[in-house]
Prior knowledge:
Blueprint: H1 4-26, E1 35-39, H2 46-58, E2 66-70, H3 77-84, E3 92-96, H4 99-107, E4 118-127, E5 130-134, H5 142-151, E6 157-160, H6 166-178, E7 183-186, H7 190-198, E8 204-207, H8 209-217, E9 221-226, E10 252-259, H9 264-277, H10 281-290, E11 293-298, H11 299-317
Parallel strand pairs: 1-2, 1-3, 6-7, 6-8
Antiparallel strand pairs: 3-10, 4-10, 4-11, 5-8, 5-9
Helix pairs in contact: 2-9, 2-10, 4-11, 6-11
Amino acid sequence: MFGRRSLLAGGATLATMSAASTASSSAAWAPARPVQLIVGFAPGGGADLAARAAGEAATPFFQTPLVVVNRPGAGGAIAAQAVAGMAPDGLNLLVGGGSESISLPAFRDLPYDPKRSFRAIIRLTRQPLMIVAKRGGRFGDIRQAVEAAKAQPGTIPHASSGIGSIYHAVFVLLQQAAGVDFLHIPFTGGAPSLAALMSNTVELAVLAPEEMAGLSNAGEVVPLAVASEERLPAFRNVPTLKENGWNVIIENMKGLSAPAGLPDEIYASLHDRFRRGMQAPAWNTFLERTGALDGYLDGPGFQRAMDEVLDALRVAVRR
């Protein structure tokens, strides 16, 4: 028979084993050096702000610093190429999910494979994309613009933030879905695109809500449609492209990926630490301040979301 002392000893042993197992699991991997969040765009842009906010929110869950490193150029492709060639040790993460991941690869060959050169860890945000017109222009809704493009192929000018950019991708997908052709006029970013719209250089543009919210509230810019699955809470009167019969869903996602070959234990540790950061007040403050949407997906879900957009865009580009 087991006496009380034996039971207590056994219970203590089990508790010790359980605690050790938990500690071993949580401490299976931890970075020995600072973790770099590598951004393919200049400081102050959407990707940079998301990286800094994610780093700030997740810092309490790391024993080493999280450092944002900007390597701008080629629509984010320079940073993506750099990370793709690094060791899969969890210390260098790409802040991707936008142009470098889902649109540029559809337009030209790149020195990395967006589907195979990385292991996605977590999706952080979704940034809606809106098609807008200037007040007083001839388009009061998106159907009028599409009908005009159908009647006058290749003559209705629209702005984007560059050839192969995610803003360009919105119109490429719309053209394929609606069977029309617009006239693409590329610029170097959202601000120049907006300036071109306001100066009547173009009739349409793709912008993020925060880029045009002020002018929209003032009545100077008219949002015609949003390329999201659902209408936006801040723009309830603006229909989706899908509502209009065109199954175009594309958003500027931001998330973290590591070089391919990242071990499972490092993936799990990084995912869980950043996921905890996304539940912190600092993260919610960032979302409220910028208008970005919480876009949480785990690594496999994030990769699928990127692949779906890239595959659809490749089909549209070949049209």
